[in-house]
Design a protein that fits this description.
Blueprint (H helix, E strand, L loop, with lengths): L15 E4 L2 E4 L16 E3 L2 E3 L10 E4 L15 H9 L4 E5 L2 H4 L8 H16 L3 E5 L33 H7 L1 H11 L3 E2 L2 E2 H16 L5 E5 L20 H22 L4 E4 L28 E5 L9 E2 L23
Parallel strand pairs: 5-6, 6-7, 7-10, 10-11
Antiparallel strand pairs: 1-2, 3-4, 8-9, 11-12, 12-13
Helix pairs in contact: 6-7
C-alpha cells in the first residue's frame, strides 16, 4: 500500500504548578492499560473486524528497519519502545521482513533473523499492538542504493548496475539495469534454477508458516509499491497500464494469495496497485482470482482472507487511521467476503 514513510509526531505537555513558596509537578496523566491482542482479525466488506464482528480502526506507526541487520531489536527497539507506543494510543505497526536478511543465499533462510523479528512482533502483541508484515523494497536492492532483495535475486542480463546521479524516482524512470531487473521479476525469469516470483512466493510461504495462528500479526502486505519496469510509460494517465496490471500484476497476486492461504488461511493478505497510480493513473488490476474490478487508489489496499479472493477493498489500516477503539459495526456496504 502507499503508506507515507514519515515519522508520526507525538506531542506531550507537562504542566508545572506554582504553589506558595514551592513548585509542584502536576500529576502525570493516567497511563492506558495495555491489553494483549487476542484473536486474528478478519473483515466484513471494506471493514477490518474483530472476532465479535466490530470494526477495528488501527492507529499505526511505520517501523521498517531498512539498515542492516534489518532488525528493529538489534537497532535498539525494545520493551520500553513498545510500552511507549501503547501509552500513546498506537495499536498497529508496519514491520518489514527484508529479503536480504531473510534469505541471503538461495534456498537458505536465516531462522535467527526470523526468530528475532517474531520476538519483536510478539512483544508488540503483548502491548496490544498488531503488526502488518511486509517485504519492503525501494529500488529493489542495495545494488541500486535501495533496500529489499539479495544480490542473487537481481538479474540485469549483463546491463551494468549503476545508480544514476538523480533522485530515487528518476532511477525508477530511466535506470536501464533497474528497469531490466524489474522486468525480469514480472516475467518470472529464472535465477538459480527457479523463477524469481517462485523464489519470492516460497519466502512468503515460509514466513506465513511461522506466523500462522499468531494474533499479533495483522496480515501480510505482499509487495510494496509495485513498479512496472519498462512498461511504466504505458501506465501514465489518462489510460493506465491495462496489460501490465491484468497480465502481470494480478496473476502474481493471485498466485501469492493462494500459496499463502494454503498454509495460513486465517490472516488477511493485502495487495496494491502499481506505483504509477500515485499520479492518478487508472487502475486495471481487477480482483486477483476473480473476473471483477477492484482497486481504487494507492492509499487503498485490497484484502482477502482465504478463498474466495477479495471482492471489495479496505483502507489500509496503518499509519493513516485516526482511532484505535473497536466500535460496533452495522453491516457495511463493502462487498468483500471471507
Amino acid at each position: 500500500m502507499r503508506i507515507r514513510k514519515s515519522a508520526a509526531v507525538i506531542a506531550g505537555a507537562l504542566s508545572i504548578f506554582l504553589a506558595p513558596q514551592s513548585f509542584a509537578a502536576a500529576a502525570p496523566p493516567p497511563t492506558p492499560t495495555a491489553t494483549p491482542v487476542s484473536g486474528i482479525l478478519g473483515h466484513d466488506g471494506r471493514w477490518i473486524t474483530d472476532a465479535q464482528g466490530r470494526r477495528v480502526i488501527l492507529h499505526g506507526f511505520n517501523m521498517v528497519a531498512k539498515a542492516p541487520p534489518y532488525d528493529p531489536a538489534k537497532l535498539g527497539f525494545g520493551e520500553k519502545d513498545a510500552k511507549f507506543l501503547a501509552e500513546h494510543g498506537f495499536n498497529a505497526v508496519r514491520i518489514g521482513i527484508v529479503m536480504s536478511g531473510l534469505q541471503p543465499r538461495p534456498g537458505r533462510f536465516d531462522e535467527a533473523y526470523l526468530s528475532s523479528l517474531k520476538s519483536t512482533i510478539d512483544l508488540l502483541g503483548r502491548y496490544g499492538i498488531r503488526s502488518l508484515i511486509t517485504f519492503p523494497q525501494d529500488l529493489l536492492s542495495t545494488k541500486f542504493r535501495g533496500t529489499g532483495y539479495p544480490d542473487w535475486m537481481i538479474r540485469t542480463d549483463g546491463i551494468p548496475v549503476d545508480f544514476l546521479n538523480h533522485d530515487t524516482f528518476q532511477n525508477l524512470l530511466s535506470n536501464p539495469a533497474l528497469q531490466r531487473a524489474n522486468d525480469n521479476f514480472w516475467n518470472n525469469a529464472p535465477v538459480h534454477g527457479k523463477g524469481l516470483q517462485d523464489w519470492y512466493t516460497d519466502a512468503w510461504v515460509h514466513v506465513a508458516k511461522r506466523f500462522r495462528n499468531d494474533p499479533a500479526v495483522l496480515g501480510y502486505d505482499l509487495w510494496n509499491e509495485p513498479w512496472p519496469g519498462t512498461a511504466w510509460p504505458s501506465c501514465m494517465p489518462p489510460f493506465g497500464c491495462k496489460d501490465f496490471d491484468s497480465k502481470k500484476l494480478a496473476p502474481f497476486f493471485s498466485k501469492m494469495i493462494r500459496a499463502i492461504h494454503a498454509v495460513d488461511p486465517a490472516h488477511l493478505t493485502f495487495y496494491e496497485p502499481n506505483l504509477v497510480a500515485t499520479v492518478g493513473a487508472p487502475i486495471n488490476l481487477g480482483r486477483p482470482g476473480t473476473p471483477a474490478a477492484v482497486s481504487r487508489s494507492t492509499r487503498t489496499a485490497s484484502i482477502s482472507r482465504a478463498s474466495p479472493f477479495p471482492t471489495g477493498s479496505t483502507r489500509c489500516a496503518t499509519a493513516s487511521s485516526r482511532s484505535s477503539s473497536p466500535t460496533p459495526a452495522p453491516r457495511p456496504t463493502g462487498r468483500a467476503t471471507r
